[in-house]
Amino acid sequence: MKKFITLLIILVLAIGIVACTPKEPIVEDPVVETPVDEPVGEEPEIPSDFNKVTLYFVNDEYIQTGNESLEKLIPEEWEMEELHISVEEAIVRGLMEGPKTEGLRTVIPATAKLLGVEVKDGTAFVNFAYEGLSGGSLEETYTINQIVASLTELDTVDRVQFLLDGEKGDSLMGHYGIAEPFEKPIN
Do the beta carbons of residue 103 and residue 161 sit within 8 Å? Predict the structure, then answer.
């Protein structure tokens, strides 16, 4: 009988607690956001060449004829759209994509995989995956030359250090040493 009375008291207390609970939720004061005034004045003027970069591509006629009197690297102006990567990386990716002008070409192997480009203290570290880089001395020469010539056009880059899988390597394709940074294209 004591159990029955104990259960009855617990039941009455539970009903009392539920009955005393407010039925509508408590509403706190609304948060009022104050609009921020836009600065008064003109937008800063952006130079017209702000998003223009120079990419160097190989003269297709030189590749086909071997005529040493022809220019080997020819500049092509590119306008960079809104970037979600660094301009340096966008330049290398643009070189890999190829030129827009007829008579020019890229010799960066289509199988090359760019892992990234970082700039530190004037050196652009161009990081390729080792796998996918193959070619003869011509491909290696102009892969290096296209990248070095294009990146050193920037005020932020004085030299280019090539990396393979994040480490300094001996050579991109077996013909030229890449242990030290390049300050200008090779001959």
Answer: no
Tell whether pTM > 0.70: yes
Domain ranges of the chain: 52-164
Query: Residue 1 has what DSSP assignment?
Result: -
Is residue 124 within 8 A of residue 88, CB to CB? The reply is yes
23-65 pLDDT, tens digit per residue, is: 555 555 544 444 545 444 444 343 444 578 999 999 999 999 9
Residue 114's DSSP bridge partners are 128
Measured distance CA(169)–CA(30) in Å, rounded: 62
Q: What is the 3-state secondary structure (H, E, C) of 68-91?
A: CCCCCEEEEEEECCCCCCCHHHHH
Q: Which residue in the block uniquely carries the two structure tokens 């060449």?
A: 49
- CA neighbor of 59 nearest in space, from 105, 95, 13: 105
Distances (CA, A) of 105 to 6, 114, 163: 92, 18, 23
Token pair 């294209």 in the structure block, residue: 185
Helix, strand or coil, per DSSP, at residue 170? coil
C-alpha span between 109 and 88 (Å, rounded):
19
